[in-house]
Design a protein that fits this description.
The chain is mostly helical. It contains three helices and no strands.
Length: 74
């Protein structure tokens, strides 16, 4: 392969890589938006972790309730 072919291949590879990252990021952002609107998960309470990150702080979610709900659904 000559220099020009390698540069062309590199350009196409970068373009498709950036396109794939763009699609993955926006699909993830949309899924977060959709789950937040449905009320499936409240993402705003996780934002308080930045300000309230002490060891003595209360947990955001109780793991026992989630496990019990999953067992009841089965």
């Amino acid at each position: 392969m000559d220099q020009e072919a390698l540069l062309t291949f590199q350009g196409y590879a970068k373009f498709f890589l950036v396109l794939a990252v763009f699609v993955i990021f926006y699909s993830y952002a949309y899924s977060i938006y959709k789950r937040d609107k449905k009320g499936e998960r409240d993402f705003e309470k996780y934002s308080t972790l930045v300000h309230d990150d002490q060891v003595e702080a209360d947990p955001l979610e109780d793991r026992k309730d989630k496990n019990e709900n999953k067992e009841k659904e089965k």
